[in-house]
Amino acid sequence: MLKKYLIAPGPTPVPEKVLLEMAKPVIHHRTDEFSATFQKVSEGLKKVFNTSQDVLMLAGSGTAAMEAAVINTLNPGDSVLVVNAGKFGQRWRDICKTFGINYSTIDLEWGQSVKPEQVEDYLIAHPEIKAVLLQGSETSTTAYHPVKEIAEIIKHKSDTLFIVDGITSIGVHETLFDEWGIDIAVTGSQKAFMLPPGLSFIALSDKAWKFVEKSTIPRYYLDLRKEKKSQANATTAYTAPLTLINGLAVVLDMFEEEGLSNVYRRHEANANATRAACKALGFKPLADVPSNAATGFYVPEGVEGGKFVKFMRENVGITYAGGQDHLKGKIVRVSHLGYHDAFDTITAISGLEMGFRKFGADITLGAGVAAAEEILIDYIG
Question: Which domain holds residue 174?
Fold first, then answer.
């Protein structure tokens, strides 16, 4: 028997009660029954985003919401600033390039977090910038960026938007959309929201909606004006991914039952335990300011990371994530994201110990687990 454990930063495991809800017979999406669920979910999403704004649901992965953020607010020839610190910072850049938007970048070594003064200095030198695009949590490097501090710099600039990819930060780190002054935030279903891929969420500030009215980039399916109008009436402009939305209703009930502050505490505890374990095992960390969504570290000398990840997935049943682009084969990323508790962390760490020992690394079995347990024992109490 090979029991499987999904410990990569997306897709993440789906709770049993959510799976059962999504297994119910499909209903029609233009009905009062579905509209009641839709209305409930809409209100629940506002609590997670900490906003009074509508949080729109889109049929598509988080990248669909990223593209929607750009094509609904900007124009060809606009100048924007992209924080390029990983694979998904590159995605912001590539989306802008596709639609003729002039982008400049703050280029950082993968694993580094941008400093607020870097953004502030750039905006002072370049007042023409229409938007700053950033990851809250850069999934490819497991680094967290200072969203709150950068929002403080931008929120008083009427001609500049702050657009945040919160795909692995919303639901992991408390994100105060209204209070901090974020203009656009996006996330996806398959991360902290504990659902299969295919649903994304986007919220816009009043400032951002003013930009929407001036944007000339053609859009049809991802036209947020259509979605705002339809979703105000508890439906979607086009066919809704209703099975995912039904599952989301259960997820939001789970958030409510646990309490969002405890959701954040759980992510923090498992992140701290994983980092402590990696330190005890002598692994070099990747991120200078690590996210609570996942922990990245360089593999021990002499181990090829890609082969390790494949072996653990196919022969042990544990799915970690490897590195991307120039970090391929050099790092491993361990998730503590979504439907993940203390004993998922213990499984993840013990798997690393035994797996790397199997690959010939000098690993003291139990050292990482012991370090993790010292932190998690307080959490489980």
Answer: 16-257
